[in-house]
Amino acid sequence: MSEPKKRGFINILQEFSLPLISGVAVAMTWANLDHESYEHVIHWMPIADLKIFGHLVTHHWLVNDIFMVFFFGIAAKEITESCLPGGNLNPIAKSINPLLATLGGVVGPVLVFFTGMSFLYGPTDDLETLRRGWGIPTATDIALAWLVARTVFGKGHSAINFLLLLAVADDAIGLAIIAIFYGDPHLPTRPEFLLLIVLGMAIAYGMRRAELKSWIPYIAICGPLSWLGLSFAHLHPALALVFIVPFLPGPRRDIGLFVEQDEVDRMGEELAEDLHIEHSPLHQFEHQLKLFVDLGLFFFAFTNAGVELASIGSMTWLIFGSLVIGKTTGITLMGLIGSKIGFPLPARMGVRELVMAGFVAALGLTVALFVAGAAFTDPTLLGQAKMGSLFSGFVGLTAILLGRSLGRNRRKAEEEGAGEVAATSAS
Nearest Cα to 184, choosing from 305, 53, 326, 11? Predict the structure, then answer.
């Protein structure tokens, strides 16, 4: 395969989240055909009985506690760049409406979750354990939401940037929720070990002050310190790079999410050099690791999405309903409130586009699966919660079908309106 074709093929894999979707398909198929062998594979140990800091080194641990460090590191990079000049979070005034909508997209699902719990469960159920699921429907999958939004609204529509900002801010809140509320339920938090994170951040700050131009020392030295701090504190170590990535020197301006290297190349050497894009450690961190992360999402999905269809239960519908109803309603209401109090929606965004953006935000797949694994240890509840997270993937297909239908109706109305104007002019 020639280099351009190879690069084009890889871009398609990344753009359409094919590794993630393929991982879900393989996991679901395998788990329902032979669940025992599937469980054997995901709990396979490369070295028998090897432990690291009390954790058995299994396939599941390597994916969720090591690989996902880099996934959340890329998410932290996107949040960091959004705060740069030209980014969606800079200046703060233009981002007020989508940030208010983000708040609605977090609070809405939580309210629906607890309301639904009161109907689906009774006082004889283990309510304390069930309540741990509230954080699962607060998540939005950035990449899938972007892909669906671009298909629904059309490339360049302001609703895409609105939804991207909402998803990035949503995931920032999601990271905080995981860190604060989803430590190991069987082990008390040891906050004194968080000083290791502070040490890692201090070293990263020193590297930045010394104008270190490579991302590797930041990640290789400070990342493990942060990982150890979280692990020893009994918090989820997958968030380790969230505290380090913001210290990586970045470009002078945000160049946008999902910008490929060839797009940077097309900017021209002079502009790229002026903005410090080409040699920015923050840019290089994403550019050199994004393929690894995107392809690795196959293994994340394979490891976490293997749920038997028999696992469908009350928690499934509670998670799915909280995502769809909570996200759509919360985002729509807070977006409208924001526009009423002086923070308007972006151009070309009306109520219909706002509702659709809220609906697309219900795509919680990746982060929702991750939070489900942190929320529940009971296999039955975990399976039901994961199934609800997986069902949110159907939101994307539904949104695309609705978007095309609405688009056809809008074009038909425009054509009819144009015909009436022409007839009136002719008469």
Answer: 53
Average pLDDT over residues 77-102: 77
pTM above 0.85, yes or no: no
Domain membership of residue 230 (yes or no) is yes
What single string gives the DSSP state of each residue in 257-306? TT--HHHHHHT-HHHHHHTT-TT-HHHHHHHHHHHHHHHHHHHHHHHH--
Strand partners, 52: 55
The secondary structure of residue 359, as a DSSP letter, is: H
Q: Do the Cβ atoms of 45 and 203 come closer than 8 Å?
A: no
Query: Could you tell me if residue 246 is inside a domain?
Result: yes
**Is the separation of the CB atoms in 108 and 331 below 8 Å?**
yes
d(CA 382, CA 372): 6
Domain count, the chain: 1
The token duo for 332 is 């729509």
The CATH number assigned to the domain holding 272 equals 1.20.1530.10
Summarize pLDDT for 145-161 with one digit per residue, the tens.
888 888 888 877 888 87
- Whether the CB-CB separation of 31 and 307 falls below 8 Å is answered with yes
In a domain, 38, yes or no: no
Do 175 and 196 form a contact (C-beta atoms < 8 A)?
no
Q: 26 lies in a domain? A: no
Tokens 């694994």 identify what position?
Answer: 373
Instruction: Tell me how far apart the alpha carbons of residues 91 and 96 are, in angstroms, rounded to a whole number.
Output: 10
Which two three-digit tokens encode residue 104?
């609605």
> Residue 221 sits in which domain range?
63-293+308-375+391-426
